[in-house]
Specification:
Length: 125
C-alpha cells in the first residue's frame, strides 16, 4: 500500500472547500490529507501552534511529527524550504485556489512547483 500524507495550509476549517493560505507558516490550520493508492482516505484539520509566532524550523518539525510527506503551499522562504528538505518532506510551491482543486491536480500528477512571489511580506500585512 502506498500511503502519503499531504499538508496544505488553510484559513478555516472547511476541509476541501477551503482556500489555500498564502503564508504557510502563519496559517491558522493545516489540512492533513491521507492518500493511499492515489485515493483520499482521510482528512484531518489541525491547528498550527506556531501561527502567530514561530522560530526557524518549528513548523517543518511540527509537520514531520504529524507524519507529513508532502507540503503543498503558495510560497515558502529558502530557509524553511531547507528545513523541509532536510526532514525529507517534498514541497510543492505556487499552488493557488481551492484545496479540492489543488488535491485533484496532485492526484492526477499534474501539480508542479511554480514560482510564487507574495504581493507583500508577512510583516507588512
Amino acid at each position: 500500500m502506498n500511503r502519503i500524507r499531504v499538508a496544505i495550509p488553510v484559513q478555516d476549517k472547511r476541509g476541501l472547500e477551503d482556500e489555500i493560505f498564502e503564508h504557510f507558516g502563519h496559517a491558522p490550520y493545516f489540512l492533513l490529507v491521507d492518500v493511499e493508492n492515489n485515493e483520499i482516505t482521510t482528512i484531518e484539520i489541525v491547528e498550527n501552534p506556531y501561527a502567530s509566532q514561530h522560530g526557524p524550523g518549528l513548523v517543518p518539525q511540527f509537520l514531520k511529527e504529524k507524519d507529513v510527506n508532502v507540503l503543498i503551499c503558495m510560497g515558502i522562504g529558502r530557509r524553511a524550504l531547507d528545513f523541509f528538505n532536510r526532514l525529507g518532506i517534498e514541497v510543492i510551491t505556487g499552488a493557488m485556489g481551492k484545496v479540492e482543486e489543488i488535491l485533484n491536480e496532485y492526484l492526477k500528477g499534474s501539480l508542479a512547483s511554480r514560482e510564487y512571489t507574495p504581493a507583500r511580506k508577512w510583516g507588512d500585512l
